[in-house]
Amino acid sequence: MYSYNAFDTAFVRERVAQFRGQVNRRIDGSLTEDEFKPLRLMNGLYLQLHAYMLRVAIPYGTLNSRQMDQLAMIADRWDKGYGHFTTRQNIQYNWPKLKDVPDILDALADVEMHAIQTSGNTIRNVTADHFAGAAADEIADPRPVAELLRQWSTDHPEFQFLPRKFKIAITGSPNDRAVTRAHDIGLRMVERDGVAGFEVLVGGGLGRTPMIGKVIRDFLPQEDLLPYVEAIVSVYNILGRRDNKYKARIKITVHENGIEEVRNQVEARFAELRAAFDGIDQKLLADIKTHFAPPAFKDAPVDAFDAHRAANPAFASWSDTNLTAHKNDQYAIVSVSVKKHGQTPGDATSDQMRVLAQIARDFGHDELRISHEQNVILPHVHKSDLPAVYQALRAADLATANIGLVSDIIACPGMDYCALATARSIPIAQQIATRFDELKLEHDIGPLKIKISGCINACGHHHVGHIGILGLDRAGVENYQITLGGDGTETASVGERAGPGFSADDIIPAIERLVLGYLDLREDADETFLQAYRRLGADPFKAILYPDQQKAA
Amino acid sequence: MAKAFTPKVVTANHLLEGDVIYMDVNQKWVRELHQAHLIEDEAQADAWLAVAAAQPWQVVGAYLADAKSSAVGPVPAHFREAFRAKGPSNYAHGKIEQDQVAA
Fold first, then answer.
1. Predicted confidence band at A478 (pLDDT cuts at 50, 70, 90)?
2. Each residue of A339-372: pLDDT tens digit?
3. Considering only CB atoms, which chain B residues are within 8 Å of A424?
4. What is the largest CA-CA distance in chain B?
5. Do residues A210 and A485 lie in contact, with contact meaning Cβ atoms separated by under 8 Å?
6. pLDDT value at residue A310
7. What domains can be seen in chain A, in order of their start residue?
8. Which of chain B's residues have a Cβ under 8 Å away from the Cβ of A27?
9. DSSP A481
10. I want to staple A208 with a disulfide (CB 3.0 to 4.6 A). Which of A45, A456, A476, A482 is the partner?
11. Rounded Cα gap, residues A106 and A432, in angstroms
12. B29, B22 in Cβ contact below 8 A?
């Protein structure tokens, strides 16, 4: 993975020193909150309901064991012994004290990490397929390009005050695990005539106005990527609305101006910019690529894996749900569920972080990933090591066999932490997971993505959940709306609202009714919830959710 | 007819700790909602808020929150203020934790 050069190191240290001075001036009264707030937000520091919150970037979700150990150390020393992995492949600390934050940032800089541009109207942490560099279906590892985008966008002087925040996602695989169609720019690697390039999507996004990204270029040669992305952001910077915060994202710019007009302006700007890129970006990219060379895969028998599977049903069940095909068939990608039934989705204790770091060192070529689904990935594990990995995970309460199932729920922090939330998310996720664990049905139910947001901003991706849940404040009471049929993959779609919302007490039985009802509707055990929904449409699912209305009608 | 005034408390976050705080009857900052002063006279509310706003070295984001009177002091009028007053529901952290330490 990428290692900082002298420039990166000096830049990050300088930013920490600047922020230390800013915090001191805020505490001694030289800066007002109005003056300080934009400075702290540029460094990822929010003030939430109960405390400050520090959002730390995990660039394209990749980290090594030393970095994971440091995240654990920070959790113990300056927070409450845990961290929260987010849908943007970041980690959030919920309880830092203001005076400690510069020290935390220095500790992050010690392991080549930072919190820069994790807030504000800037280009945010570039997110990527969490199986990048490992997946069997991948054309090429997208992370060198993601790192190039990180370097280019960090402190880019033209793009520090965009109309609104700007999120880029990238995948090197035709199977989209990075929700690229719900990003301001989505980059999907495709091949044409044996040459890899990118399908470029623009204007996707969730929030109060969900939109699926539109194709602005169906095939962009790799060497044109940086000037083309710069052209898009540059056009948006001029064309994007600054008069209304809710109409400021590029999805609205594309919607109001039309994709043709945006494309014409981007192509014109690209023609100007292309000449200014004299190849330095390609030299940089070539250097970055050397950091992402595949690990030295071992060549050894995998019999131990098969034997253990046959002998240990719990291990077999876990390997059925939590493993994904690796490009090296002696290897597997391990998805570690940070979603034990009843636990807070995405929360890992410092002890769990250290266990994951140790497993990565012992069995994982020192690589870890954070997924947008709030789980931790060990991208390269030799199959003969899987029994040992499973044992180590089990001992740390990290061996829940539920990846992709009903209890593998995305949930934003909601009103338990977030100042913007209109209702809680976490307890709803905990209760749904606990209930389906009691029913012992989740493996029969099969692949099902439930995603929960505690407000309309949709950090919990509810619009692209097969079942989405949106928590709202209705006349001073928490109320939960259900959306159906959303999909965040290459077949992306925005879920449709099912009908009136449910109270906090009624939402869990409603979800249970809906999922059990699906079992009666599906053609066979292989037809997933989403497939059944697409075949049958919304009506039979609405009838299950609202039985009284059906009787009345 | 003018809408009836909903009683208020002055609340903010502590600058250094980030913790939720309230203004008591002596215009000092306290941690517990039930120790706060309940402003029942609409004419006084802005003056109380101005006292908080004049202390930027101590507090962040002061505002008037709806509250109700009770035998034990002010109680929240909305669930958001209830969560601010008691802490998150998934762990005994924040005010719940502090109360356990104090007890």
1. very high
2. 999 999 999 999 999 999 999 999 999 999 999 9
3. 83, 89
4. 49
5. no
6. 97
7. 6-110 (3.90.480.20), 142-291 (3.30.413.10), 303-395 (3.90.480.20), 410-552 (3.30.413.10)
8. 15-16, 57
9. E
10. A456
11. 39
12. yes
The whole-number average pLDDT for the span A53-62 is 98
For the stretch A494-504, pLDDT in tens is: 999 999 999 99
Q: What is the pLDDT of residues A444-457, one digit of tens each?
A: 999 999 999 999 99
Rounded to an integer, what distance in angstroms lies between the CA atom of residue A494 and that of residue A488?
8
For residue B31, give its domain range: 8-102
pTM of the model: 0.96
DSSP H helix total and E strand total for chain B: 3, 5
Residue B25 lies in a domain: yes
Tally of structural domains, chain B: 1
**B83 in a structural domain:** yes
Mutation target among B93, B95, B100 for the A interface, most CBs of A within 10 A: B93
3-state secondary structure labels for all residues of A95-144: CCCHHHHHHHHHHHHHCCCCCCCCCCCCECCCEECCCCCCECCCCCCCHH
Q: Are A251 and A177 in contact (CB under 8 A)?
A: no
Report d(CA A355, CA A112) in Å as an integer: 21
For residue A552, pLDDT over 70 is answered with no
Q: Which of B22, B66, B91 to mutate to test the interface with A (most CBs of A within 10 A)?
A: B91
Q: Which residues contact A507 (CB under 8 A, 6 or more apart)?
A: A428, A469, A480, A482
pLDDT of residue A553 exceeding 50, the answer is no
Q: What is the pLDDT of residue B103?
A: 44
Q: What is the pLDDT of residue A269?
A: 98
In a domain, B1, yes or no: no
Q: Which pLDDT does position A497 carry in this prediction? A: 97
Give the A window 250-269 contacts with B, CB below 8 Å. Answer: none
Q: What angle do CA B90, B92, B94 make, to 5 degrees?
A: 105
Report pLDDT digits (tens) over A405-464: 999 999 999 999 999 999 999 999 999 999 999 999 999 999 999 999 999 999 999 999
Task: Tell me whether residue B41 is in a domain.
Answer: yes
Average pLDDT over residues A295-300: 97
Whether the predicted pLDDT of A156 surpasses 90: yes
Q: What three-state secondary structure class fits A200?
A: strand
Contact across the interface for A97 and B16, Cβ inside 8 Å: yes
CB B80 to CB A52 under 8 A?
no
Q: Which residues of A touch B60 (CB under 8 A)?
A: 33, 47
| Residues from chain A contacting residue B84 (CB–CB below 8 Å) | 49-50
Q: Which chain A residue's Cα is nearest to B60?
A: A33
Question: Rounded to an integer, what distance in angstroms lies between the CA atom of residue A181 and that of residue A211?
Answer: 8
Hey, is the C-beta of B78 within 8 angstroms of any chain A C-beta?
yes
Tell me the nearest-neighbour CA distance from B78 into chain A, angstroms. 6
Of A33, A99, A344, the CB nearest to B60: A33
Judge: B89–A416 Cβ closer than 8 Å, yes or no. yes
For residue B2, is pLDDT > 90? no
What is the rounded CA–CA span in Å between residue A116 and residue A398? 30
B31 part of contact set with chain A, CB < 8 Å: no
From the number of C-beta atoms within 10 Å of its C-beta (0-12, 13-18, 19+), residue B28 rates as: exposed
Q: B57, A98: Cβ pair inside 8 Å?
A: no
